[in-house]
Amino acid sequence: MSVIKDTIARVKQMDRDQIEFQQAVTEVLETLEPTAQRHPELVKAGIYKRIVEPERAVIFRVPWMDDQGNVHVNRGFRVQFNNAIGPFKGGIRFHPSVNLSIIKFLGFEQIFKNALTTLPMGGGKGGSDFDPKGKSDAEIMRFCHAFMRELFRHIGPETDVPAGDIGVGGREIGYMYGYYKKIQNAHTGVLTGKGLEYGGSLIRPEATGYGTVYFAAEMLSTRGLDFKDKTVAVSGSGNVAQYAVEKVIRMGGKVITVCDSSATIVDESGIDRDKCCYIMDLKNNRRGRISEYASEYNCVCCEGENVWEVLRKQGIKADIALPCATQNELNAEDADALVKNGCICVAEGANMPSTPEAVRIFQEHNILYGPGKAANAGGVATSGLEMSQNSMKMSWTREEVDQRLLIIMKSIHKACLASAEAYGKKGDYVTGANTAGFMKVARAMLAYGIV
Known about the structure:
The chain has helices spanning 3-14, 19-30, 33-38, 40-44, 47-51, 100-116, 137-151, 170-184, 207-221, 239-250, 273-285, 291-297, 307-314, 332-340, 356-364, 372-375, 378-392, 398-422, 429-448, and strands at residues 56-65, 71-82, 88-94, 123-128, 160-163, 231-234, 254-259, 263-266, 300-303, 320-322, 345-347, 368-370. The protein is an alpha/beta fold. Strand 6 (231-234), helix 10 (239-250) and strand 7 (254-259) form a beta-alpha-beta unit. The radius of gyration is 21 Å and the shape is globular.
């Protein structure tokens, strides 16, 4: 048995209940077989076996009190996966679905995503099964403070630098950073996604969505194409989706969908800038449901279905698909329908939103497919730029940060293509992203010896 198959089998046996983590490990390691054949020194040093084990995983209770005086207890997580090339770096997610498997899969993916950015950042992830929906600001503040009361022991500007993720935006980062600063008596760059007033970076909120569109544009350019006059389907309606929609509009594309956990809207006339601003106000300020958009603009609203289900069932064409919601949202049936209806490009704004079967369909039909660890790396790249600004005690302009983000996304695209070709899979962005990110981390691990 090869070291790759042996490592996958070991993970499936030891972490048999962690389905998402098994999926992530399998997807990455299966593309790394050529690296094992070409670099026996990595096999001898146990790199493949070591890289699938986190350096540490911390699980802790988070007790907090609601506005009625009732005590609740949630579970908190921080998985510090690999710091071979820099401090652990990865978001904090607040969502009822959060468990150890999901945090490990996200942390594992983060290793390679961060390596691709060219910035010195390791991989980690954290979160809680706390649901911020329907909670008051005071309740969210009390929860964030309670969460940080334990997390502060495990993070630091040169140790582990968390950021936001699903359910954790500027408000939550502010509450957590304020509490960290108070108990540590220090003003350091220990969290990214901070407000501009206290160390944040311009373009950080926009970065993941913008970066996904920049990466998709690079993929399209390999076939002499661009976004102009293309019909684009976007899933989600949070931070990533909002700014992906904004950037597509600026590049001349027509976005026809967004969704949240309750419904999907299809606006075939196109979501223009005014409509995009309405979505941002609805989700960020009023914290409403996307169905309100349908009432405001008199368009189709499908309750209880995600974007890809709706496109499939209604036979709606999309030239470009940007899944920006959550893991495993786009399955084989959805992928097949996208291909049959003329989709030419898929770029993932979320982490692992396409199932393995869906990815296979995209690849078999020669669809331009950008996996999340490459296509959505813009968010963590700009977090890295925020860390740099914090270290230098200075701020860059919006234009400067956006230009650096564009350069990074172009660099990631170039690295993916070069690595794919080097390992015999020309044009395969999955192989390219995995091998490019892995080899950078593996060489650092090799240099350190067995640690």
